[in-house]
Amino acid sequence: MHILLVEDDARTAEYASKGLSEAGHVVDVLENGREAMVQCMQTEYDVLVLDRMLPGMDGLALVKALRASGSRTPVIFLTSVSGVDDRVTGLEAGADDYLTKPFAFSELLARVNALARRPATSVETTHLTVADLELDLLKRTVRRGDVSIDLQPREFTLLEVLMRNADRVVSRTMLLEQVWDFHFDPKTSVVETHISRLRAKIDKPFERPLLHTVRNLGYSMHAPR
Asked: What is the pLDDT of residues 78-128, one digit of tens each?
């Protein structure tokens, strides 16, 4: 694993980095929080081990800045502060684990290895793209190329479901459940009507169709093959 250790106490930094290196890990060592922030923007690490109190930028501010930037790298705080409120503050800031000084190296190693085994935190998708069609879930906007497309709320939801399942067939039943919350067949052409309206907006004005009918199965969103 590639580990960044940020610790301004030289003896602690040497003790921890030597042990982690002997355990087979690659360890970068820094003593300044602001330098660590820059380093994290340039290098991808598997685990960060941070002192809570650092010059330049303290560990708490560093973790908050990393999380705000979208980083999901696991973080362990090393700290001489053992109060419950301080641990809670660190965890709420985005840290994954806490180890109080003085610590046994075997415990640090076990915690580092445990964090590295965790599955990566999934990041919620805010943009969906199929070919040149883009859907922004936060702004609730749709564009195809340079053209902005105005959709009604139900059309937007329908398109979202189709784009989330790009290159797969989405059945009429699935659309009834996910778009209209129908768990029965209403015996109407509501799906077909909305598909037709959606197609008129996202396909017909453009050269390449993206929304395809799959006979007797449903619909599929994909670029022409």
From this structure: 888 766 776 777 788 888 888 888 888 999 999 998 887 776 554 456 889
Neighbours of 30 (CB within 10 A): 21
How far apart CA 99 and CA 82 sit, in angstroms, is: 9
Enumerate the β-bridge partners of residue 2. 26
Judged on CB neighbours under 10 Å (0-12, 13-18, 19+), 179 is: buried
- The pLDDT tens digits of the residues spanning 119-150 come to 655 445 688 999 999 999 888 999 999 999 99
More confident residue, 212 or 98: 212
Extended strands (E) in the chain: 2-6, 26-30, 47-51, 75-79, 97-100, 127-130, 133-136, 141-144, 147-149, 169-170, 211-214, 218-221
122 in a structural domain:
no
Q: How far apart are CA 115 and CA 217, in angstroms?
A: 44
Q: State the CATH number of the domain containing residue 86.
A: 3.40.50.2300
Q: What is the CA radius of gyration of the chain?
A: 25
Domains in the chain: how many in total?
2
What single DSSP character describes residue 53?
Answer: S
Q: Under 8 Å CB-to-CB from 53, ≥6 apart: which residues?
A: 8, 59, 79, 80
Q: Do both 71 and 138 map to the same domain? A: no
Q: Do 65 and 147 share a domain, yes or no?
A: no
